[in-house]
Amino acid sequence: MKIVRFSKPDQAGYGILEGDEIIEILKPAGDWDVESLKPAGKRYDPATVKLLAPVEPSKIICLGLNYRSHAEEVKLPLPKRPIIFLKPPTAVTGPGETIRYPEKSRRVDYEAELGVVIGRKAYQVAPSQALDYVLGYTCANDITARDLQPARGNWTYAKSFDTFCPLGPVLETAIKNPEGLHINGYLNGELKQSAPTSHHIFTVAELISFISDCMTLLPGDVIITGTPAGIGRLNPGDEFVVEIEGIGRLKSIMGKKTGE
Ligand code: MG
Question: What is the distance in A from the centroid of ligand 1 to the CA of 111?
């Protein structure tokens, strides 16, 4: 099942993308699971609505160095335990949107990643139970002001600007094995990143267990699971696509520098 969020004339709505139509659903008040989704009674032609990021997370938890190939390209040692940092919900943007180039940065990068969407409240869950708390998966782009990462001395600063967390285009609930996917990243149509998610240093189940050991994960929260090798710069006007088999293609456009 492909869950989407979309803009209607008066507000945003949730829906299920089925063939050539979106069946609107009511947003569950608490935990999300596939059985809890109720139709709201309206159907839309996807060509007539604008797709938004498929979730509204209370927080986005991000992984640093979760692929050996990326740790090697940035010449950092492999982590012994997951390196986590946060993006705020204000960083989220939807498919096809423009990334805002911060005036204070001289280099903004793309990072193609798998996004894990939590379906029900999770606190201190064991790895063996962790995937039961997942609603589904989406494509994510961990946009990073690379020069500000060392300049500001932490990762969260460089990765938290508005629009620095594109998500979408859909939230796919049918994936049972998040380590059995393949992720690609295309810069202006040229393949720059390509890796199986089986190359994760820490699996999605291990990540949920590690993160939920210190914080409560809420329905809609997103974990972005790290990027493989091939990261690089985005220049104004560039188009970057994150493609994950079984989910879809998330396109973003790099905007002009703020103020230009
Ligand atoms: Mg990343």
Answer: 6
Ligand 1 centroid – CA 254 distance (Å): 17
Q: How far is the CA of 24 from the centre of ligand 1 (A)?
A: 32
Å from CA of 30 to ligand 1 middle? 29
Distance, CA 65 to ligand 1 centroid (Å)?
7
Residue 72 Cα to ligand 1 midpoint, Å, equals 14
Quote the CA–CA distance of 47 and 136 in Å, as a whole number: 24
Residue 233 near residue 108 (C-beta atoms within 8 A): yes
pLDDT digit string (tens) for the chain, length 260 residues: 999 999 987 788 999 999 899 999 998 888 888 887 888 889 999 999 999 999 999 999 999 999 988 888 888 889 999 999 999 999 999 999 999 999 999 999 999 999 999 999 999 999 999 999 999 999 999 999 999 988 787 889 999 999 999 999 999 999 999 999 999 999 999 999 999 999 999 999 999 999 999 999 999 999 999 999 999 999 999 999 999 999 999 999 999 986 65
Q: By three-state DSSP, how is residue 175 classified?
A: coil
Domains and CATH numbers, the chain: 2-52 (2.30.30.370), 60-257 (3.90.850.10)
| Distance between CA atoms of residues 97 and 139, nearest Å | 14
